[in-house]
UniProtKB/TrEMBL annotation:
Domain called TRAPPC10/Trs130 N-terminal: residue spans: 1-240
Cellular component annotations (GO), alphabetically ordered: cytosol; TRAPPII protein complex
Protein name per its UniProtKB record: Trafficking protein particle complex subunit 10
GO terms (BP aspect): early endosome to Golgi transport; intra-Golgi vesicle-mediated transport
Pfam family, one: TRAPPC10_1st
PANTHER family, A to Z: EPILEPSY HOLOPROSENCEPHALY CANDIDATE 1/TMEM1, TRAFFICKING PROTEIN PARTICLE COMPLEX SUBUNIT 10
Length: 242
């Protein structure tokens, strides 16, 4: 969300650098941590893309929402950007989406052309005060991202670390909820009207997710469980069960 042209100018660098460094993926239930490379598909913010109540899909809606701005003028912030961020956050709240990040892109060239910039009332401080409450880390600065300088690279590295961390946190949380919903659905298999085909689609999607993360052993476990469940289903049906 936010400044689409700004994001478009940074997207080639972002998409190239994001998967470069691996992240340690820690999950619950005593599972061993694994190193994974994160690749993300970025889509323009639209309310219809947000998950609806009861949506059991895992791969069809965005996990982490990012607002991009390079505003460095306090008056412009007051008159337009603040309202835009407010509307964006209200839509997220309405859909119980709590995973978000605001990125303020700073450019020395832009700052030099402005006279009403005061360090104590910087745009970043205003955004943190207006929107972040105790989550000040949800607003980050990206300094001169298109410059070829050590300062620019340091800024990119700090931003990418934050982005990878938030992406992984959000993904892990959504994956955990998806697995819980899948277990609930599996436990209902003795009830009338339970559909193996419907359940197969759910667990197969989980296998696809593990394949995307190159966690092939975890993906294979999903298919083994489906195979065992189907075999039991056939045996029960042959014995006159349901």
């Amino acid at each position: 969300a936010g400044d689409q042209n700004l994001f478009t100018s940074l997207y080639p660098t972002l998409s190239q650098q994001l998967p470069r460094e691996p992240m340690e993926w820690r999950r619950s239930y005593g599972r061993a941590p694994k190193m994974i490379h994160l690749e993300s598909n970025f889509v323009q913010f639209k309310e219809e893309l947000l998950p609806k109540e009861g949506n059991k899909a895992l791969l069809t809606f965005p996990f982490l929402h990012i607002y991009w701005t390079e505003c460095c003028d306090t008056e412009v912030y007051k008159t337009t950007v603040k309202d835009d961020i407010t509307k964006w956050q209200n839509v997220l709240k309405a859909h119980s989406s709590v995973d978000w990040l605001i990125v303020v892109v700073e450019s020395d060239a832009k700052k030099k052309n402005k006279t009403n910039i005061l360090p104590r009332t910087s745009i970043v401080d205003k955004i943190r005060n207006d929107f972040c409450n105790k989550q000040s880390d949800r607003c980050v600065v990206l300094s001169d991202p298109l410059k070829d300088s050590s300062r620019s690279q340091e800024s990119w590295n700090a931003f990418l670390t934050k982005l990878r961390t938030l992406l992984l946190m959000s993904f892990t949380k959504n994956l955990g909820k998806f697995e819980d919903d899948m277990r609930t659905l599996r436990e209902k298999r003795t009830e009338p009207g339970w559909s193996f085909c419907e359940y197969f689609m759910v667990q197969e999607e989980l296998a696809f997710v593990f394949e995307m993360l190159q966690q092939f052993e975890d993906a294979l476990v999903q298919y083994d469980e489906l195979d065992a469940l189907f075999s039991q289903y056939v045996v029960n049906f042959g014995a006159g069960g349901k």
